[in-house]
What we know:
Shape: globular
Largest sheet: none
Order of helices and strands: HHHHHHHHHHHHHH
Low-confidence stretches: 297-306
Mean pLDDT: 86
Number of helices: 14
Amino acid sequence: MPSHLSSRDAALALLVVFIWGTNFVVVRWGLDMLPPLFMAACRFALVLCPAIFFLKKPDVPWRFLAIYGGAVGTGQFGLLYIAMDGFISPGIASVVMQTQVFFTIAIAMRRSGDRLAVHHVLGLLPAAVGLVVIGLHTGEGITAVGLVMVLGGALCWAISNQATREAVAHAAARGQSINPLAFVVWGAIFAMLSLFAGSLVLEGPALIRQSVATAHWAIWATLVWQSAANTLFGYTMWAWLLGRYPAASIVPITLLVPVFGIGASVLVLNEPLQDWKITATLLVMAGVAINILWRPRKILAEGEAA
């Protein structure tokens, strides 16, 4: 397994994180035409169909797919889309969502017995300060409700990460592996159903009919970008890269997601880029970077010996 990315694969990795980062702006465009839960449901409907007819269901219990789909759908994207519908700016949302790293660590400690390491604490401190800085500037494109909802979305992202991890472990215990794209697609069943149900209850049939009748044709472009580019292409290529290179060579590139997110929001949506916003972003990303890039001395020594 090569340790350094080729020029082609480095460009592919950058393309994926570019798509993930700029997707926050695309979502913001879509929210001008469709209510948040309904738009999220349409996104997962397009993830599901027609791909489900070409991909075999992963050989794991349905509960893994249900937890994953529910957490990603209603939790991660449901809360994120509602928050971005007037409660928080796309750029800041792209930063706050990265706190899923810390939620993932906490859940793994609880579910899998992972131990808390020094670098986890060291990473949490600057990230927490960054969130406080964001919280102190509510009213400047940010509300407390929006911040809490995005944090809730990050928590649900972490839950979906753990569901995936346990599904992979379940398959491995049986000498099998999981097609990550098939797992995402079949999990979309539960994401789509929960989001459509939430939309019918909270947004109502009348608003859904009106938004569909008045939506510009460009809504289809935003939905295709969210489903085909962001989810199907992005997740598939990322899984392929993780299978080709060590995680240490790939995962740090995700630090560029909020860079593209804020950059696109500033350039396309004219989101103000105040000093406090830059400071908060650097603090949160410093915390995430410590957790992603930290290499214990023992592991480094083993790597050098190899």
